[in-house]
From TrEMBL:
The lineage of its organism: Bacteria, Pseudomonadati, Pseudomonadota, Betaproteobacteria, Burkholderiales. Coiled coil: none annotated. The chain crosses the membrane at residues 16-38, 58-77, 98-131, 143-159, 171-188, 217-237. This is ABC transporter permease. The keyword Membrane applies. It comes from the Bacteria. Keywords: Membrane, Transmembrane, Transmembrane helix. The keyword Cell division does not apply. Pfam families: ABC2_membrane_4.
Length: 244
């Protein structure tokens, strides 16, 4: 039944604002980095390692956490707006199944946004090539490593934002929470306290100072994600008559 629910949820987001955001948010990051590099580069040689690092830093520090807050709010907000929660729960499904189906949908949107970032960044590099910039080392980037680390380390944020947007009918509250939490990355993410702040796990996993730090961030994110998903799913399962 849960696989059927996921199929239904995928059909519901066709031509949706959430799908548009999945494309627009990473594209804006790539366009920003492309424009800055094009305007400031005076040597004609682009340090591609720094270019990739700058793109992933902007994505991990700012845009990805904000995107997750907006995306989960939009996915669950449609159900709140049109009061379709109770209609869905009149079907032979449980609240837990619906909650998990929505989570899987949000996870697909997370992976999709990371893929769009990679593809748009590759496209910007090809444009640099057309503009006669040398591309030596431009593709020496661990694409699958980025996709795996960025998606896995963001799971705690995704789950918490999903639960909050599930609980709160107004999209403003989850989005405001996401904005405030993102601002904390600037201070806490650069300190030794980063391990206590899940919003800093993405940057630690992507641009950590050592491989040990990167693996620690991924491990912490995985454990916290499993615990959070289990607790929230159990809590949702207690609502036998729908959302309260």
């Amino acid at each position: 039944m849960i696989f059927r629910l996921i199929q239904i949820e995928l059909l519901k987001v066709k031509r949706s604002l959430a799908l548009l955001m999945m494309l627009a948010c990473p594209l804006m990051v790539s366009l920003l980095c492309f424009s800055v590099q094009l305007k400031t580069n005076k040597t004609g040689v682009i340090p591609w390692t720094m270019y990739w690092a700058g793109t992933t830093a902007i994505w991990g520090y700012f845009m990805l956490p904000l995107y997750l807050a907006l995306m989960t709010g939009l996915l669950n907000g449609n159900e709140h707006k049109h009061a379709t929660w109770r209609l869905m729960l009149t079907l032979p499904i449980t609240p837990r199944q619906l909650f998990l189906a929505k989570f899987v949908l949000a996870l697909l949107f997370l992976i999709g946004a990371n893929l769009v970032l990679l593809l748009s960044c590759l496209l910007s590099i090809l444009v640099f090539g057309v503009l006669s910039y040398p591309l030596d080392g431009a593709f020496d980037f661990r694409f699958f490593h980025f996709l795996w680390c960025a998606s896995l380390s963001a799971l705690p944020i995704l789950i918490w934002q999903h639960w909050m947007s599930w609980r709160v009918q107004n999209i403003v509250a989850p989005l405001a929470f996401g904005v405030v939490a993102t601002m904390g990355i600037l201070q806490i993410g650069r300190s030794e306290k980063w391990i206590y702040y899940p919003w800093s796990y993405v940057m630690a996993a992507l641009n950590g100072s050592s491989s040990a730090m990167q693996m620690q961030a991924i491990l912490l994110a995985s454990i916290l994600a499993l615990l959070s998903l289990g607790i929230f799913t159990f809590w949702v399962g207690r609502q036998e008559s729908g959302l309260d």
